[in-house]
Amino acid sequence: MWTLISKIVDLILPKRCKNCGKIIYDDDALCEDCFNQINFISAPYCFHCGMPFEESSNRSGPTLLCPACAAEKAPWFRLCRSAVHYDDASKPLVISFKFYDRTDNVRLLAKWLNMAGKDIWRAGVDVLVPVPLHYTRLIKRRYNQSALLAKELSKITGVPVEYSALVKHKRTRPQVEFSGRRRKHNLRGAFKLKHAERIKGKKIVLIDDVLTTGSTLKECAKALQVGAPESIDLLTVARVCKD
Fold it and tell me: How far apart are alpha carbons 174 and 191 in whole angstroms?
């Protein structure tokens, strides 16, 4: 009976590609053309920061580090991973999800997060923490895209989400208006740990949609470190990958 009802629904409201709208046969997916344009981040990449090496690179090895990570004496995170390159193929999915109420994209993006985080899951995780929004922006947007991602990822992995331990108590201008050092200055002191007892001694994964310079995630990590977690990992849907 349920199968028949599903078939009738599919005839009336057929499944469509999350990007171009073409009719497809799978829920929460892309058509073949759109999928083939997505640039997934795969090995070889830096084991620490997850930055992919150039295709022409002959680097290999499970724990290979990029020069920046190899030179870093006191890293502020354990592992960082992203699912896809932030480019013309992935931008429409992320932007429509973040700004234009396409919250139905969350299931597809969370699946990508789960695949990208395999090294993090292997290292051990206790709790997911989404990057918070200031309450004024949350009221305007009506939802926090990072919190939606964390919630959906929790359904897949079984890892619980801590929504209220970390807050953004300082209103800042959008990061897209700045670059380089000005991004860091814009976010300085913007985040605060509200419930330190909820993260003490735990392995935390910070969840966000896009990693650009890392300024937002770094400021979040600084606030979380006050609570003495065991480790902090970073996981985003997309990242800007520079040569």
Answer: 15
